[in-house]
Amino acid sequence: MRKVATVLAGLSMAFAIAGCNAYDEETHSATLAGGAAVVPTSTETGAGTFNLTFKGPAAEWQLTLSPALANVTGIHIHDGAAGVAGLMYVVLYDGPTATISTLRGAFSADQVTACATAPANAGGTACVATASRTFGNIQAAAQAHTVYVDVHTTVNNAGALRGQIN
After folding, report:
1. Does residue 18 have a pLDDT over 70?
2. Total number of domains constituting the chain
3. With bands split at pLDDT 50, 70 and 90, how would you rate the model's confidence at 95?
4. Rounded to an integer, what distance in angstroms lies between the CA atom of residue 164 and that of residue 84?
5. H or E segment to which residue 108 belongs
6. So what's the pLDDT on residue 43?
7. Does residue 124 form part of some domain?
8. Which of 3, 78, 105, 108 could form a disulfide with 86 if both were Cys (CB 3.0 to 4.6 A apart)?
9. Which of 108, 22, 106, 109 is nearest to 60 (CA)?
10. CA distances from 27 to 52, 54, 61 (A)
């Protein structure tokens, strides 16, 4: 009887500990369009959706473009309010040049970066970490709607499609 009670107590403790390790999820989304870019694009059309879910020390994301966008060179999360160009927080995709309809991935705190200058092209961007660009700050910026996702192409290096993350 004692063994059964000890085993049951141990199992209860294991389940309780496992439950404590679950992270709260926080989900944000964006609708992308060429007209939302700081320099609106007239040569590329399309739209997209972006979903970003924070799970503790990591974030998962998915981008869907319709129709598929050709010559994509980079996809990044930047800081900046709507209509404002900002520095890069994190690289989601950085080549090779491809046609993209759906892309998904994840990033962690050590992948959050800032760019010293605006990118001339997505592949040649030099990024450096700064004290103000942390994983916690990107999550707070998503809550404040002051970050956006930007899709760069060979035709529109500054950004072909943009969506403010809400």
Report:
1. no
2. 1
3. confident
4. 10
5. strand 98-108
6. 73
7. yes
8. 78
9. 106
10. 6, 6, 9
Each residue's pLDDT tens digit, 112-163? 754 433 344 344 444 545 556 778 888 999 999 999 999 999 988 888 999 9
**Is there a domain that residue 7 lies in?**
no
Residue 73 to residues 89, 98, 150: CA-CA distances in angstroms? 17, 7, 11
If one counts every other C-beta atom within 10 angstroms of the C-beta of residue 154, the result is 13
- Domain of 53, CATH number, reads 2.60.40
Is 107:117 a contact under the CB 8 Å cutoff?
no
Question: C-alpha 115: how far from its chain's center?
Answer: 15
Assign 3-class secondary structure to 39-78. CCCCCCCCEEEEEEEEECCEEEEEEEEEEEEEEEEEEEEE
Residue 106, amino acid? A
Residue range of the domain that includes 83: 23-164
43-91 pLDDT per residue, tens: 777 899 999 999 988 999 999 999 999 999 999 998 889 988 888 888 8
Q: Is the model's pTM score more than 0.85?
A: no
End-to-end CA distance of the chain: 56
Q: What is the overall mean pLDDT for the chain? A: 79
CA distance 121 to 106: 22
- Read off the tokens for 97: 């040049």
Encoded tokens for 13: 């403790």
